[in-house]
Specification:
The protein has 295 residues and is α/β, with parallel strands linked by helices. The protein has a single domain, classed as Alpha-Beta Barrel (TIM Barrel), CATH 3.20.20.150. 40% of the residues lie in helices and 16% in strands. It contains 10 helices and 10 strands. This is Xylose isomerase-like TIM barrel. Keywords: Isomerase, Signal.
């Protein structure tokens, strides 16, 4: 099993340049690769997943590697290389690994991250923090800042980047964006950055989401794309281009010279029913065309 010591010697020589924005001359060369979040396809074999992803035209996948995902965390050292090999055969990458990691002291953390780094996977999405509304908000943010600094130190050693997604919701740390900005204070975005989700940002901020984006943009390493609309019954996920997400966001990304990957999420069809897999692919193909048009 890979260990931290193993990778301390190797990652310094092999680490990729890590910057999502072109203001840093070390920005990654493969700009704006588009991957697909594969939560609806966990019933497929690794080879089936890779073949169908390649057929649609994506450059890679964002894969749930967490309890209930494609691979359980304990099985990562054995199974993750198999998934990466299936993708490699189709000239695809595992672009983002979606994890349940947010604590460097958890025994499973180093096992998962060292294996991930050894396979050349650069990004992993972190598990969320959630507020206890009975406690001081600012004290909780400062506590998570210290915890993320410990995780960032491990990421730096391994040459890997954690990304924290801004997720809409009453008690999600990062939903408001300003709190995530404060929580990342003193942390190199190359060690822990942001997976900026335009759908969740628009849900929480309404018309003021561009200001929040400007606040957090220097931390953004990955961009998530999906859409929603408001109705009488509340919020509903919808196909890309049929909701409230503003296409002008992509003009902002272009002006900012964002060079990181973009992950397409499709959440308006039930991902729990394997019989709906063909419908998911059809929906994703349509959303992919919309995304490419916007870009």
């Amino acid at each position: 099993m890979p260990t931290r010591r193993t990778f301390l010697a190797t990652t310094a020589a092999t680490a990729l340049a890590r910057s999502a924005f072109a203001g840093d001359a070390s920005a990654e060369s493969e700009s704006n690769s588009i991957c697909v979040f594969t939560k609806p396809f966990q019933s497929l074999t690794f080879d089936e997943l890779a073949q169908q992803t390649a057929a649609v035209g994506f450059g890679g996948i964002e894969a749930p590697i967490r309890p209930g995902g494609h691979i359980e965390p304990e099985a990562v050292p054995d199974k993750l290389p198999e998934l990466v090999e299936s993708l490699r055969k189709q000239n695809l990458k595992l672009t983002v690994l979606t994890s349940n990691i947010n604590d460097a002291s958890d025994p499973i953390t180093e096992s998962v991250l060292s294996t991930t780094a050894s396979l050349g996977i650069r990004y992993y999405r972190m598990q969320y923090f959630k507020y206890d509304e009975g406690k001081s908000i600012t004290k909780q943010i400062d506590q998570w800042n210290r915890r993320m600094k410990d995780l960032a130190a491990l990421n730096k050693q391994l040459g890997i980047t954690g990304v924290y997604q801004n997720h809409a919701g009453r008690n999600y740390f990062g939903a408001a964006i300003w709190d995530l900005h404060r929580g990342l204070d003193g942390i190199d975005p190359n060690d822990i950055g942001v997976a900026y989700d335009i759908r969740h940002a628009a849900v929480e901020a309404g018309m003021s989401w561009p200001i929040n984006f400007q606040l957090i943009r220097d931390h953004v390493q990955v961009v998530y794309v999906k859409d929603f609309t408001w109705g009488e019954s509340g919020l509903t996920n919808v196909p890309l281009g049929q909701g409230e997400v503003d296409p002008n966001f992509f003009s902002m990304l272009k002006k900012a010279n964002f060079r990181g990957p973009i992950s397409l999420h499709q959440e308006y069809i039930d991902h729990r029913n394997p019989k709906l897999v063909p419908q998911h692919w059809a929906a994703i193909k349509s959303d992919f065309q919309t995304l490419k048009f916007w870009l």
